[in-house]
């Protein structure tokens, strides 16, 4: 995003957080997120409307009046107020305003999970889902089929998730599948990272030769927090090919303390 859009999004983000304070935060957040996703679907299908909302040549009051006329009666009060506020800002492009609404919709749902005391659970569920999709290549291929309708993809994933995750995780995952940015594995893992950031934590991706228990994860999180100077969230998976030890990835940094890694480095050293 260019400077104008970044400033507009920062303003809308603050406005959203203020809207969701007090009242029934869980219900308001959930409804706002879902409403914004529906608005995005309309905008994706209507180029003329996208252009009108991002037209900086028209008065902010005119753009606000337009969204109020088109969406006002169809949205929850917080979503309607937020949409009007977004429409009144200066955006650098039509893409930016739509992407901003996607971001705000996701943030609203994550705030709802936070109000419900489930944000940590949602973070973990999103990560687990990303790993399932990474392993289940057939399912991922079906979800990335460009010839399949979005509704069909959502129904397919909804059947997989039904009764197994929170409503917030399900809503976020279904929206991500319907409107992909890169691929399902990366997109959903990115959402897990966003959930961690809202809790003031950074994610450490840990691959081990055997399953880690909660106590081991807590100890590792504390050690990594000391090293990196910030709270850490451990996302772990098992890979028996490591033979022992673990591989840790934090951002772009990789710490390979696995037995397989040590053997590989020893072989490299001996071959020189």
Stretches where pLDDT falls below 50 for ≥5 residues?
A: none
Overall geometry: elongated
The ordered H/E elements are HHHHHHHHHHHEHEEEH
The major sheet is characterized as: 4 strands, mixed
Mean pLDDT, to the nearest integer, reads 90
Query: Structural class of the helix and strand makeup?
Result: alpha+beta
Helical segment count:
13
Estimated share of beta-strand residues: 5-15%
Number of domains: 3
* Secondary structure: number of strands: 4
How many angstroms does the end-to-end distance come to? 47 Å
How big is the Rg?
A: 21 Å
* Major beta sheet, strand line-up: 2-1-3-4
Helix content bin: 55-70%
Write a short abstract of this structure.
The chain is an alpha+beta fold and 272 residues long.
């Amino acid at each position: 995003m260019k400077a104008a859009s970044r400033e507009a999004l920062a303003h809308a983000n603050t406005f959203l957080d203020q809207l969701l304070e007090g009242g029934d935060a869980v219900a308001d957040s959930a409804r706002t997120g879902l409403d914004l996703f529906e608005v995005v679907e309309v905008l994706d299908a209507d180029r003329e409307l996208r252009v009108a909302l991002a037209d900086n040549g028209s008065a902010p009051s005119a753009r606000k009046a337009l969204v109020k006329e088109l969406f006002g009666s169809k949205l929850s009060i917080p979503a309607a107020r937020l949409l009007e506020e977004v429409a009144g800002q200066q955006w650098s492009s039509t893409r930016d305003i739509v992407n901003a609404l996607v971001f705000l919709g996701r943030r609203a749902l994550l705030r709802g999970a936070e109000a419900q005391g489930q944000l940590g659970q949602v973070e973990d569920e999103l990560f687990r889902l990303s790993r399932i999709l990474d392993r289940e290549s057939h399912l991922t291929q079906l979800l990335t089929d460009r010839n399949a309708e979005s509704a069909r993809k959502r129904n397919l994933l909804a059947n997989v998730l039904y009764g197994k995750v929170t409503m917030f995780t399900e809503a976020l995952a279904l929206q991500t599948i319907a409107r992909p940015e890169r691929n399902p594995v990366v997109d959903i893992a990115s959402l897990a990272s966003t959930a961690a950031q809202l809790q003031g934590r950074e994610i450490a991706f840990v691959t081990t030769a055997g399953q880690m228990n909660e106590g081991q994860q807590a100890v590792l999180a504390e050690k990594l927090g000391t090293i990196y100077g910030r709270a850490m969230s451990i996302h772990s998976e098992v890979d028996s090919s490591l033979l022992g030890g673990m591989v840790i990835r934090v951002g772009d940094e990789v710490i390979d303390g696995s037995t397989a890694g040590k053997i590989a480095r020893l072989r490299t050293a001996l071959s020189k």
